[in-house]
Structure formats: C-alpha cells, structure tokens
C-alpha cells in the first residue's frame, strides 16, 4: 500500500488529526480548489458520514476538518453565538480530534465555522469563514429535481428565481424572502447564502476573507473568493433592502446590528439584544452600555 | 539497477495540510505569491515544489499526466506512483492534474479536459514549474480574489500565452486552473481571472 | 440586569450523564450483554447491519445497546464507524446460487428442483403472545429435519426460467467497476447498481411503503415472488499479490427475485422482467420491498412512463436514507432564532400594512391611524 493509503492516528483519540482520514481530506481539498476557481458553483463531493447528524453541520465540519492546520485558531458560532449547544458541540469535536486553539473572539480566529450568521466585526484577509449549509440549491424550492436545476445553472437560466421574487412583490408589495436570500456571485452563478438573514448578505460582497460553504447531506461544496462581487437579486423598482431594527441592543447599545428578540415575561415584556455575542461582549468591555445594562 | 526511492512527506498530515493551504490561498488570491516550504528531494526534473503539490493533492482517484521531460525520467514516475498511488495517464484529456516541468512547451490548453457546462469542476488543474514568478510586473488580471487588479509574471511560457489565457477565461465557467511553482513559492491563476489590458502592454 | 443565556458546555455534559443513566435503566435489573442482543435480537441486528452497510453482528449489537434500541441511532453509530475503516479492495461477486440454504421458497412454482424449504419463519405462526417466554421457557425440541438443503440441487428459479428465454437475462458482467455511493456523490440518472446500493441502505419502513404503493396502483408492476432464499454465502477476495481468490468466510444473506410481467417492445419480445432485493442476515420484508422498488425504478430503462413516486429515482434515492432524513428532520430542534426573527419582522410589517389598508376608508379616525403605524 502506498503512503497515501496509510492512516496516521493521533495519540489519545484513536482517530486521525481532525477526524477525517487523509484520503477524504484530499478529496474535499480538491473540491474546495475547484469551488474557488468557479465562484458560486456547487461542486459535488463525496461527503462522509460524520459522527454528528446530517443537518447539524456535517458539511461545514468536513470543510473545516479539511482546511484546518495545527496553527489555526478556530471559532464556532450558531445563531451568532459561541455558547449555543451545537456550537459548543462542534468546537469540542475539533478540540478533541485536532487539538487546535479555539476562541470566541472574531478578530483572533483564523477559521470561523458558522450557522446562520456572519459576524458583525468585519472579516480580514487572514480569515476563512466556513458556512454550514442545509439546502445548497437556490432553485430547489422552485424545481425539486437535481437533473433540472443542474441544467438551469449550466445555461445560467435564472428566470424562475426572478419570477418567484416578483410574485412576492405582486402578493405582498415587497420580496417576502427574509433569510437564505439568493445572491449572484461574480456575475454568473446564483447561489444560496445558507439560511443567514438577508441582513448579512451585504457582508458577503467584496469581503476580504475567503468564504467556503459545505453541505454534507446534499454533498456540495461552494465558495466565494475574497474581494468577489456578490449581488443580492432584486429589481430596479424594488431594490434589495436589509432588515432594520428601530432600536439599539439593550445590552451594548449597538445600532445597525442584527438583534435577537428576548421575551422577558408573560406580560408582553421583551428586549432586543445583539445576536453576535462576541460583538456585544467586546463592546461592553469597551464601556458601551444599553438601556438594560 | 536498484534505486533508493526518494522520501515522501515526513509528516503527511501536517505537511499535506500546509501545502494545500498554500495552494488554497494562492488560488483564492490570484497574483499573490505564497511561500511554499518543502524538504522533499525528488528525482530531477521533478522539482521539490512540484512534488509537494503532487503529494498533497493527488491519489488513486486522480489521473495525472506528466509532460515530456518528466515522462522521460522513469524515476519520476516511480516516485509519484509510490508516494501518491495516482494512475499516470498518457492522454492529457484524461488527467485531473497535469505536472509540467517545461512550461515553455506546455501543450495547447484544448488538449486538457475543460469540464462540461453541467460539471465545470471536472476540468484539469495544471501545475507548472517556472523559473520566473513575481507579481511586480507582467500581465494584469482582475476578477474574484483580486482587489482591483493584480500582476502575475511567470515564465518561460509559450509565445501565445496571452491569447491562450484570454480564451480560457472567455470559456468560463469551463476552463483550466493553473498553479505556478518556483523555488520555495507558489501562485495561482484560476479560470475566473480576467486578463486586463492596462495600457497596450507588450507581451512579456 | 438581564444576563444572556450561558452554560451550553455544562448543559451538554449533564445531558450525556442523564443519557448514560437512562440507558442503563434500573440497576437492579441485570445488564444486557452484547452477546445476548446478537443472539436473541438477531433480526434487529441484521437490520442495523443492512442499513449500516457493514457486516459485523457484534458491532451492530453493541450499537443497539448504546442506542437504547433505537434502530436509526444504531445505524448511525455503525455508519460513522464504517466511514473510518480502511479499504483493502472489493470482493468477488457473491454467488447466491451456491448459498447454503436455511430457507427457500418460490411463489411461482408449486414444486421445483430442491423443493420449498420453509426454514425459520414467522409466516405461519399465530400471533398470540407466548406468556411462557416471559420467564424463560425451555428450548423447543430440535427440528426434525436438518433445514439446510443441498445447494447444488437448488438452482435459482430465475435461472430455470431464464433457460427458456421467458425471463430477461441478468445483465452480463462486463467487469466494469461498480460505483460506490459512499465514495462518490450520486449523479442522476444513477445506474441500477447504485440504485440497489441506495435501496439496500435505505430505511426499511420507507422502502416498504414505497413497495406497497406499487401494489396499490401507484405504478403497478404485476409482481410474483420468483424466489426468496436465506442462507450463508462464501465471500471471496483476490489479493493483488496472490492473483487468485481466497475465502474470507461466509455472510448470511436474504435474496429476493421478483418476477414482473412485461409486454415487450419493438426490440424485445414479451418476457418477464426482474426486480432484485438483497440484505444482510434474514430480512425478507426489506428484500421483497427492495425488489418491488428496484423493478419500479427500471421504468425508464424499460420504456415505461415515469409517473409515480416509486418510479422516480431522484425522489426515492434522495429520501430513502434514514440518517439523512432523520438528521434533517431533527435539526429543526436546533436554534433558528435568527431566521425566526427575520420572519417575525416581516410578518409584523405585513400585518401593519394590512391594518393600514383596512383603515383607509375611515382614515379620519385618529385612533385607527395610530394603530396602523
């Protein structure tokens, strides 16, 4: 057997560094390189069965495992928070299998795995943002067949998507898609940004960091290279607009950030706080306060 | 005659990861020159950096094509077969990766797999060992991964290189992706890199 | 002051401890051994091996113990273990014609060479709860005749029919490599070998329901059970350095060959066609359902219109895997605060606009205008 077939097992865990065997990592790495070369195109890859359930981040975990090196500093967030149970579980997985340093500070991380949010702090050139993706195909709810959607992408035939968005306008007066809002990448492929709120879409455009997307159950990897044009689909008379919150974070006073609504009591009391917990904590450490702090 | 086979990665896990990360960075930021350290000492004319990428990216699942100077040295094939297990193919259009030691005689791009409209990712990746590799001069590019414009000067390359690249980019999303290696460094040129005519630049 | 929810780490640790506690149950009751599960819950073990794509009765039994008897969870454990195993190569094709039979029945011929071998089956039991089992009954007296039939005298029914040209032949083995859907993502349309892999790994309940649907008018294929055979088959492997096959031992299998009516086409005379099912251990329900769905999925190949779910390979293959299905269904338990907030904002806005519209005819009323803002 050639050395490419050997298995190196880290002491203690019984598994290779970052869990995946080297052959699987090479397969994923090759898919990542092609994904980078064809921004927004979904590269099929032979996703493995991971020790956590499909739909819980297996695609993101495989991408992270394939790129991670011993010197990386990993941050894992779910809904913008580092302390949600699934974020904790994935961070522990990499601590146990790769022994890499972890952080909750966006600025300190070299690899950030995320579900449903893009951090509020601007990303930098040294960083890679890895998204967990449930349904990578932006056209899936318009056309359930893979054989059909593949042809539509090949022909750059995205009329269906515009019709869907336009029907929203006809019915509701505006586009009723609030998350997983489709984008056009580098003027060619229409792409699903994963179920991030459309509030985060503008952060994908011209971003200094590399953005990688992993869908385990659906076996697809795609990418947005740094400094790539990412345009949210819209119409001249109905331009793309993000959600706006009419109050600042109750804890740190931040404005222009995405907020979680917290129900305080059964009498209708509620407050709005930063969804990005690191952003909120950093601001409070810097002396910013909100009305509830 | 008995050869002693040149060694592979001393630490396949971490060296393979480091070489891949350099390639990932290079391809996602065309025009940037990335450092590529390796202790490999493969048989000539396979240079250590070319060998490092082959070991990091290829295996039994990836047919590999070697250019004439690499094919002419049996020790190169023996080294690659042993360390990667990749099938070496004679037909360039069957290759997932092409290793090119003599870039000035790089075959026409059409000789390699371009991918298909439904699966553009099935195109070949060319890894070329060049003597010159810098980003302070040379043709300019724009597009994904590039802030504004970037230069990439690699050589020696065939005289019709500029028109080859223009055609390669024009076929997007089909097309080849290139990795250039030179002593201790690496640069990438994905098919998405659009050639920019700055001011009627002379062909370098 | 409000304090954001914290404590994910501690919560997970506690959940794991609670799980271990309920898994063990009442400590006064003796703990199950893996051997007990393997021997006495064998059909469950067989199902976990089949859907887990790994023939290892001890591992499947251990997985069932760890999973508190949850089949999908046990399959999950087996699959996640399987994915880390090194691969040495592929065995020679199994010859089920040479099976050491424990059971063999045909519904198409009353008698046939080798005869009908009922073997161990629930088929003719009366489903009356046997309270004698509660306290451990004495073992039943040994069967009168040795159930194992002579393999040489038991040709497959499909081979008998095939000789007369009444049944389509098995596709010839052209030596082409067989795809592996655990190593390459499925590319539609998938060939029959890949479809069979998907069906074999597929959830028994889902495959059963799909097979059932073809019998109830959603794609009728007029099936007959040509043969079901259950028994042990020798596994052979040819190591590269030897160049000839060596035996690795035997695996227990259930094979079902369904025979279906086919009216023929311009190029092919009328003849019977086949649907095929194969599972680890004894799993007749799954093997039969798999054979029905396999035949149904051959619609396009046989020139039949693809109109019902069981004929639609994207529908069947994309949804039959219990791990993919359970993962995605159950991931709805994960927090979706962010997306829900986005929807909440939209619904509030739409409601405000709706109220504004309703308010228009009487817009001079200041209280209504206020409510619309």
From TrEMBL, chain A:
Its EC number is 4.7.1.1. It holds the Pfam family PhnJ. The keyword Cell division does not apply. It catalyses: alpha-D-ribose 1-methylphosphonate 5-phosphate + AH2 + S-adenosyl-L-methionine = alpha-D-ribose 1,2-cyclic phosphate 5-phosphate + methane + 5'-deoxyadenosine + L-methionine + A + H(+). One of its GO terms (molecular function) is lyase activity. Signal peptide: none annotated. It comes from the Bacteria. Keywords: 4Fe-4S, Iron, Iron-sulfur, Lyase, Metal-binding, S-adenosyl-L-methionine. Catalyzes the breakage of the C-P bond in alpha-D-ribose 1-methylphosphonate 5-phosphate (PRPn) forming alpha-D-ribose. Belongs to the PhnJ family. This is Alpha-D-ribose 1-methylphosphonate 5-phosphate C-P lyase. It comes from Methylobacterium cerastii.
UniProtKB/TrEMBL annotation, chain B:
It comes from the Bacteria. This is Alpha-D-ribose 1-methylphosphonate 5-triphosphate synthase subunit PhnH. It comes from Methylobacterium cerastii. The gene is phnH.
UniProtKB/TrEMBL annotation, chain C:
It comes from the Bacteria. It holds the Pfam family PhnI. InterPro entries: PhnI. This is Alpha-D-ribose 1-methylphosphonate 5-triphosphate synthase subunit PhnI. It comes from Methylobacterium cerastii.
């Amino acid at each position: 057997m050639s050395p490419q077939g050997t298995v190196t097992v880290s002491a203690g865990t019984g598994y290779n560094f970052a869990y995946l065997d080297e052959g699987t990592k090479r397969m994923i790495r090759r898919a990542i390189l092609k994904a980078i070369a064809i921004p927004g195109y979904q590269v099929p890859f032979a996703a493995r069965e991971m020790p956590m359930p499909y739909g819980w981040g297996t695609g993101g975990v495989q991408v992270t495992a394939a790129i991670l090196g011993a010197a990386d500093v990993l941050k894992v967030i779910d809904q913008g928070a580092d302390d949600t149970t699934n974020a904790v579980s994935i961070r522990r997985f990499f601590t146990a299998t790769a022994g890499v340093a972890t952080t909750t500070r966006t600025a300190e991380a070299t690899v950030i795995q995320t579900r449903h949010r893009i951090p509020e702090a601007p990303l930098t050139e040294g960083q890679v943002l890895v998204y967990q993706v449930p349904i990578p195909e932006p056209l899936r709810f318009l056309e359930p067949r893979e054989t059909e959607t593949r042809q539509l992408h090949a022909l750059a035939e995205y009329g269906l998507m515009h019709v869907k968005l336009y029907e929203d306008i006809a019915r509701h007066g505006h586009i009723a898609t609030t998350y997983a809002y489709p984008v056009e990448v580098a003027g060619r492929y229409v792409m699903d940004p994963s179920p991030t709120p459309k509030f985060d879409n503008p952060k994908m455009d011209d971003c200094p960091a590399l953005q990688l997307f992993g869908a385990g159950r659906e076996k697809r990897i795609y990418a947005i290279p740094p400094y790539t044009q990412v345009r949210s689909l819209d119409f001249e008379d109905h331009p793309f607009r993000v959600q706006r919150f009419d109050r600042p974070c109750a804890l740190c006073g931040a404005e222009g950030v995405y907020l979680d609504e917290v129900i305080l009591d059964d009498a209708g009391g509620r407050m709005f706080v930063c969804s990005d917990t690191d952003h909120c904590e950093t601001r409070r450490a810097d002396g910013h306060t909100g009305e509830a702090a | 005659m008995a050869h002693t086979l040149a060694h592979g990665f001393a630490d396949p896990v971490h060296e393979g990861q480091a070489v891949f990360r350099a390639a990932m960075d290079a391809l996602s930021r065309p025009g940037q020159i990335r450092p590529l350290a390796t202790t490999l000492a493969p048989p000539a004319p396979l240079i250590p950096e070319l060998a490092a990428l082959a070991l990091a990216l290829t295996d039994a699942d990836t047919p590999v094509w070697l250019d004439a100077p690499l094919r002419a040295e049996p020790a190169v094939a023996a080294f690659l077969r042993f360390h990667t297990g990749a099938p070496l193919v004679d037909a360039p259009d069957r290759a997932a990766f092409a290793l090119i030691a003599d870039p000035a005689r790089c075959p026409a791009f059409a000789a390699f797999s371009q991918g298909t409209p439904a699966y553009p990712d099935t195109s070949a990746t060319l890894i070329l060992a060049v003597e010159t590799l810098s980003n302070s001069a040379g043709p300019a590019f724009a597009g994904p991964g590039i802030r504004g414009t970037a230069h990439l000067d690699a050589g020696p390359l065939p005289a019709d290189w500029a028109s080859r690249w223009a055609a390669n980019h024009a076929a997007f999303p089909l097309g080849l992706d290139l990795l250039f290696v030179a002593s201790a460094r690496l640069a990438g040129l994905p098919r998405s890199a659009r050639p920019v005519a700055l001011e009627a630049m002379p062909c370098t | 002051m409000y304090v954001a929810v914290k404590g994910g780490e501690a919560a997970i640790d506690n959940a794991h401890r609670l799980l271990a506690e309920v898994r063990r149950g009442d400590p006064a009751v003796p703990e199950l051994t893996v051997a007990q599960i393997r021997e006495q819950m064998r059909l469950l073990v067989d199902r976990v091996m089949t859907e887990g794509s790994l023939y290892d009765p001890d591992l499947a039994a251990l997985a069932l113990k760890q999973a508190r008897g949850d089949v999908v969870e046990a399959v999950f454990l087996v699959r996640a273990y399987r994915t880390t195993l090194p691969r040495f190569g592929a065995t020679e094709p199994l010859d089920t014609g040479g099976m050491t039979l424990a059971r063999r029945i045909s519904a198409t011929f009353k008698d046939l060479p080798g005869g009908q071998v009922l073997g161990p089956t629930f088929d003719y039991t009366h489903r009356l709860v046997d309270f004698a089992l509660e306290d451990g009954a004495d073992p039943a007296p040994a069967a009168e005749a040795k159930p194992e039939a002579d393999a040489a005298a038991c040709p497959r029914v499909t081979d008998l029919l095939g000789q007369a040209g009444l049944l389509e032949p098995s596709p010839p083995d052209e030596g082409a490599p067989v795809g592996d859907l655990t190593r390459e993502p499925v590319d539609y349309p998938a060939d029959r070998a890949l479809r069979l892999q998907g069906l074999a790994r597929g959830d028994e309940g889902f495959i059963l329901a799909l097979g059932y649907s073809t019998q109830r008018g959603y794609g009728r294929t007029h099936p007959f059970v040509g043969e079901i055979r259950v028994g042990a088959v020798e596994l052979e492997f040819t190591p590269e350095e030897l160049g000839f096959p060596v035996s690795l031992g035997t695996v227990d299998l259930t094979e079902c060959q369904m025979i279906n009516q086919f009216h023929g086409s311009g190029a092919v005379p009328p003849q019977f066609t086949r649907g095929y099912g194969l599972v680890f251990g004894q799993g007749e329900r799954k093997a039969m359902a798999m054979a029905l769905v396999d035949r149904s999925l051959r619609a396009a190949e046989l020139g039949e219109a693809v109109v019902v779910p069981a004929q639609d390979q994207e529908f069947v293959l994309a949804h039959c895997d219990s791990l993919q299905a359970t993962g995605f269904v159950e991931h709805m338990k994960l927090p979706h605060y962010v997306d829900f907030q986005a929807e909440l904002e939209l619904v509030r806005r739409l409601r405000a606009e709706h109220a504004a519209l309703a308010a228009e005819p009487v817009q001079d009323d200041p209280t209504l205008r206020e409510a619309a803002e």
